[in-house]
Structure formats: structure tokens, C-alpha cells
Amino acid sequence: MDDSRTQAYLTLIRMLLAYPTQVNEILNAYQELIDFGLLHTMRQVIDWFATQRR
């Protein structure tokens, strides 16, 4: 996974977290990013948040 793709995933994740009432619209607008890489990046973000809460 290249850095620009990873940054795109992180931007998408930030948007989803910032605008939870607009999830459908955001995902429809960024369909090209919905793949295993996005899921993998989401898992990494979840793991990072979990370590920050300790």
C-alpha cells in the first residue's frame, strides 16, 4: 500500500468520524477507496485508539 493511498484512507476515516450522520453520502462519494486496504487501515486506527485509552 503506498503512502498516498494510506493518506486517502485516513482522510476518509477522519471524514466518517467527523460526520457520522453523512456516512452514506461520504462512502458513495469515495467508493474507489472501499477495499481491503480501507478495512486494514480502519483496524489499525481502532488498535491505535485502544492503546491511547489505557
Question: Could you explain how this protein is built, in words?
Answer:
This protein is mainly alpha-helical and 54 residues long. The protein contains three helices and no strands. α1 crosses α3.
Summarize the structure.
The chain is mainly alpha-helical and 54 residues long. The chain contains 3 helices and no strands.
Q: Structural class of the helices, strands and pairings?
A: mainly alpha
Number of helices: 3
- In this structure, how is the largest beta sheet organized? none
Considering DSSP H and I runs of 4 or more, what fraction of the residues is helical? over 70%
Percentage beta strand: under 5%
On the 0-100 scale, what is the average pLDDT? 94
* Run of helices and strands: HHH
Quaternary: single chain
Shape: globular
